């Protein structure tokens, strides 16, 4: 069961094919957790790793977390692949 309400269905036949890490820059893991679980924020992640290394699952892996928040990329299919290609210079799938 997802803790964050900020997710939707993963498009059919879309495998998980990478790991995306985000640095929140927030003052604490508790504050980041509050933000990632706020319906008003419209942003989430599958997992939160706090400053002590504790891992909190926030969104089920078979769902799509809203990593980019309410921005354009959050609704664009395959944005993770495009972002990966941009950052690494790899041609991607």
Query: What's the story with the biggest beta sheet?
Result: 2 strands, antiparallel
List low-confidence stretches. Answer: 84-93
- Relative helix content: 10-25%
Domain count: the total is 1
Average pLDDT value? 77
If strands are numbered along the chain, what order do they take across the biggest sheet?
Answer: 1-4
The total strand number stands at 4
Beta-strand content bin = 5-15%
Helical segment tally? 2
Report the span from N to C terminus.
31 Å
Which class best fits the helix and strand makeup?
alpha+beta
Q: Write down the Rg.
A: 13 Å
Order of helices and strands: EHEEEH
Provide structural commentary.
It is a single chain. Helices cover 19% and strands 13% of the residues. It is an alpha+beta fold and 93 residues long. The chain has one domain. It has a two-stranded antiparallel sheet. It has a two-stranded antiparallel sheet with strand order 2-3. β2 and β3 (55-57) form a beta hairpin. The radius of gyration is 13 Å and the shape is globular. The N and C termini lie far apart (31 Å). Mean pLDDT is 77; it is low at 84-93.
